[in-house]
Each structure stands twice: as C-alpha cells, then as structure tokens.
Structures
1.
Amino acid sequence: MADHIGQRIAARRRARRMTQADLAREAHVSLPMIKGCERGVRKPGPSTLEAIAAALAVDASRLDPAYVGTSHRVRAALPAVSAAIAAYECPLDPPACSLPEIQADARTVMAWRLAAQYGLIAAKAPRLLTDALAHLHAATGKERGDAARVVVAVARAADAVAYKSGAHDLSARLVDVMRWAAGHADDPNLSATVAYVRAETFFAAHAYRAGQLVLEQALDTMPAPGTEPSNATRGALHMRTAVVAARAGDADSARGHLLEARTLAETLPEGIYLGTAFGPSSVSVHEVAISVSLGRDHIGRALEVADSWAPGDETPAERRSGFWIEVARARLWSGDPDGAFESLKAARKEAPQHVRDHPWAREDIEKIRRLKRSDATSLTAYAEWIGAI
C-alpha cells in the first residue's frame, strides 16, 4: 500500500504506462523533481502537486489526502493580477528579463492554460504580466510585434484563471489589455484571436446577440484565408461564433458558422494555432456545445456525437473536459442521470481544476443527487469535492 505521496505518484504513473520522463514532460516539471518525489526525498508544493495530478488524470487529493484544493490560492492571487495591469498603458519599470526568456515563459503558461492548470498560472501570472508589459513598452521595430504577442499570451492565461474563478470584471479588463496589445502588432490573426477570447465577456453578461454581432464583424475584417495560421484562426472564430449564436437562439447562423469551421478544419490537422486548439476534433466538440446551447430540442445531435466519438489526446485537456460537461448536461436533459454522472466523472479525470470551477458541473451534480438518492455516497463525495454542498 502506497504510504507517501511519492509512492502514490509512482503507482499512478506505472498504471498509466508512463515513464518518469513522460510524467515530467506532461506535468511541465523537472525530471529531478519527479525522481525526488517518488523516492520520498522531495515533497511537491501545491502547484507542482496539481501539475503532476493533472498529468496523471487524477485529482490531487488522490496523491495527497491533506491537499485542500486550488481555489483559495487562485483567488488570493487575483488582486496581484489586477495590480499588474492597473496601469497597463503606462511604462513603469524596465524589463527584468530578456524577451526570449519571457517568450519561453509565455509558451509555458499557454501549455498550463490548455491543461487547465490554473494553480500554476495564478502563481506566475502577476510577475509575467509585469515583465511582458515592460517589454512591450520598451520594444521597437519587429520586437514590438513579438512583445505584443507575449502580452496577449500571458494575459490570456491570466484571463483563463479569472474567468473560471468567476472574476468576470477582472476577466474583461484582461481582455482590454489583450485588445490594446494586439493593436501594437500588424497581425490580423492576433486581433482575431483576441476577438475569440473576448466572447467570454458576452457569455458572462448573457449578451449573446451582441456577442454574435461583434464576432461576425471580426470575421468580416479578417483577410481571406490562405496560410495554416489564418485558416485555423478563422475556423476557431467561426466555432466560437457558432456557440454564441446558439446561445442567442439563432440556430441557422450557428449551423452556418459550424459548417464554415468544419470546412476549414478539413484542411488542417488538429493542433494549437496561436494558442487556440483547432481541427476536426475541436469542431466535433463544438458541435456538441452548440446542440446543448440551442436547448433541449436539439440535444439528440449532441448524444449522437457522444455515442460514437470522444476527443482523444490530440485535443487539450481543458477542451476534453468541456466536452464531457456538455455531454453530461445533454444526458441529464434526456432523462439519464446515471449517464450524466458518468460523463461528469470523465470530465473530472480529464481536467479536475476545470470541472471544479465550472458552474454547469456544480448545477448538474446537485440535480443528479436529487434524482438518485440511492447512490448518495458516491454522488455526495463528488458534490463535496466540487463544492456543491
């Protein structure tokens, strides 16, 4: 029986047929850290534990029973994020590190965002935002565009933390930072990527019709597709516009935008383009999201997709988790609370931090508990974990 954290990590790693190097790479931590933890000579801090747990597709409490979650640490970091962008238009201190160093950090936080490792982002975001903004203010020539892309990448990672934590005002301010930074780069794809993220503001406000119009205007101003990045950026914006249109009740526009996205996805492999996942799998995930967003009369299509397909490792963990949350809602609406609970458990395995902060997951587990009182033990354990009770 595993009696310390390192032994539990090793047991889970072997069960998933991963080497120590595989785990270090997937968790974005050093190989010596993994080796030291497994030998019991090092104890991972909360952020490192969460990263390892995410890579092993388990909740961190399975590795350390004393673990109390990320929410309080994430929320405690939000004031520092807010302070870092309080005067984003004004140059303050000079950069504390080189542009290549901050670019490498930006790639790291992008990977954390796609893996829904919000605790790691929260710990690093204030300093990274400060450094990235300092570089943009100091940069000239070609470096100005490079620095603008770094600001967008880091602010987008911080926004993921703010938005998922329900700090929607801070999220909207981070979107403003992204829009401002994108204006310093002669890159229409970067502006379109920011428009994609800006949709969160309309989701938070339930201003779906306004969001649909804004995203359609962004599509109209994009240059004609041609390169892989431009095709992927346009396709991703069509996907996001389709979901907003579905929330607005505009089924025809939603399906039209989804068709445009699918046509573009057929020309590309599934991958990460300018920080956004796009490709055939992403379009299928969004087809489920659109069906659920359109309401109960449309969930049949969501269930058809889920019964024959599921996203694999080609899709980021956050998006895989989102797929199962959407499927859970469709199954619950169809009168299948058992299937809905299985889908929520699948979502948790993919990205625990994402599920824990998702309002739909919390709402649905509460309803499932009311419907399935005979399964109170397992349902209550899940509900306590997610904070529904």
2.
Amino acid sequence: MLAPSPRRWVMLGVGTAAQTAGTSYLYGLPFLLPALRRATDLALWELGLLVACPSLGMVLALIGWGALADRRGERLVAGLGLTLGAAFLAGAALSHGPALFVLLTLAGAAGSAVYAASARVVTGWFAPGERGVAMGIRQTSQPLGVALASAVLPVLAQAGGPRLALLATAGVSALAGVVTALLLVDAPGRRTPRRVLAPAAVALTGWWHRSPTVWRIHGASALLVVAQFVVGAFALDFLITARGWAAGTAGPAIAGAQLVAAAARVLAGRWSDRSGSRLRPLRVIALGTAGVLGALAAAEAGDAPVVAPLLLVALVATVSWHGVAYAAVADAVPVSWAGRATSTQTVVQNVAATATPPLFGLAVTALGYAPGFTVAALFPLAAVAVLARLRESSGPGRAASRT
C-alpha cells in the first residue's frame, strides 16, 4: 500500500473546478427563466421542461461516460465532454423552437461526462476514510456552479438576452475542457482491465446493484433531489414574481446561499468521516430539510416576512447531503466500478431532476407556491423512511485501500 500522494488534492481541485464549469449550465439554466419568459411565449411548465433538458441529457448519457472513464481514465472523459458541451450550447444559443430543446439536451449529455470523471478522481486518489470530505469538496461544484450562474446569467440575459448568456456559458465550458485536458492526471492503477470491463449497455446489471443498500441510497437520493430542484429551479422566479424582488438583488442573494451550501457539503462529508457513518448523517439532513420546507410552506401561506430568509435556508439544506450520499455509494463498490456506480447514482437523481421543474411549474400555476412547498416537504420525509434501519455498507469500496 502506497502512502497518500499530496497530488490527490491538486487533482481534486482540478476535477472540482471542471465540474463547477459544467454545473453552471447543467443546473444553472433556471436563472434564465425570467429572461426566457420575456423572450418566448412558452408557458411556465414548458419553460420548466426547457431548463430540465440538460438533466434529461445526463440521464441518457452518464452511465456510458462512467464506463468510458473506468476504461480510459478521467482526463479524456472530462476534457472531451466539456468541449462537446460547449459546442452544443453555442448551437442552442443560435436556435429556437424544438431545436433549442434538442441542443440543450445534447449539451447536458456531453457535459455530464465531467461528473463521471470527477467521481473517479475521488475514488481513485483518496482512501475510504477520506472520501467523505473529498466527495464533499467535489460536490461543492454544484452550489458553486449554481452560485456562478445565479450571479452572472441574469445580468448577461438583461444585457443581451438568453442568447448572450448561453454563448458566455459555452465559452466557460470550452475553456474548462481545455484546461482540464491539460492538467488532470488519471488516478494511478485505477482503470478497469479490459477482461473484466462490462459494456455500458449492461452497466446497470453490475453486481453491486443486487445490494439493497445501494438501491436504497439511490432511491433516497432521488427523493431528496425533488426537494432540491423545487427550491433551486424556482428560487429566482419565486423571489422576483411572488415576492417582488429585483433581479439584481435576488441573484446575488441566491449566489450567497449557494456559497454557504458549498461549505455545508464539506462539513457534512467531514461529519460522515469522523462519525464512521454515512447513513445517519443522511437521515438527519433529510429530516432537517423536511422541516425547513414545511416552515417555508407555512410562511408563504401566511405571507410572513420570513419567507425569503427561509427560502435561502432551504437552498442550503436541500443540497448539503450530496457528498455524503456519493461517499456511501463509493464505499459499497470496488474502485474499478466507481465510474459506473457513481454515474448510476447521478442518473437516478437526474430522472427526478428532469421531472421536477415541469411538474412543479404545473402545480404552481394551478395551486400556488405554498401548496407546492408543502408537497415538496413530503419527499425528504420519504427519504428518511427509505433509509430507516438500513445498515452501513461494509462493501469493497470501504475496505479497499489505495494501491
């Protein structure tokens, strides 16, 4: 067994930066909702479907990227995915109608590669006892990317419409792809040998998916993602249209909450490392998330002045669990299958992420925000039930050491 390499932190930084760039459009398009309302005649549920297109693309492509990362390494997959995503984003900026939906879906499919690659950076470079913190740092990319999007995209959209915002995002993705291809180094000795590599088409049949622990973590994560996307996808629109905030105030406020959320992910990962448990922190976070969403629903129903602060707290709570969940999955699988296992985790989450914005848009149109937040609070409660009495994994990922 080799001593941990100091390079692992550099590689984690490169992988996290790459994923942050991808996240800025994979999860940042909801911040173009007000501009898209002005620029198009689409209904709110149609706009919800539009901003969910990158998540749909992730669902379609991510396991394939995971299999390729297991076989060819992180560097190729991250660089190729980000540059392809940039090309599709640029095409989307110049399109309209059905082509816009298709190109945004393809951009999501391409950009999702960075998620598979960055997960392998953690499982390849870090020992199991460090993965809670490492996954937490890796998962800061989501709130950091969303913070970047919330601060920049509305300003660009006001200046030049959604087209300018999409072109700028494409430029960031292209630059990140090139830099990642130059700097990222594949983890030593972590590629899957050809003789044991299953094709992407059968990746879901991997042996780890006979484990109820892994499936229940996947299921609980999908339920938590519903709550995350209810809040995250509509926060800017809610503050502007329902609470009367200016875009120049709402965007920075959401960006600040996302920075706090990034720190919360690292702290949650550290908690899981120190406690020796992944599932207990997950249950506590899910229960707390349900409480915050319930309070938000009650405050909105009563038009209380604490609605906006509660929304910002909900932005933090609904995303703080990710690193712990990914570390729990990584603990249960061999490192040589880590790309596919963590990609499957992301795919299951993005099935929920794709469905949530259009369905919640319909619910808000018919019932309003308060009933919508009430329903959203039920999903993290269901996650607690899914994780109840589930035993900690003692799988090969937790037992393995770096070699």
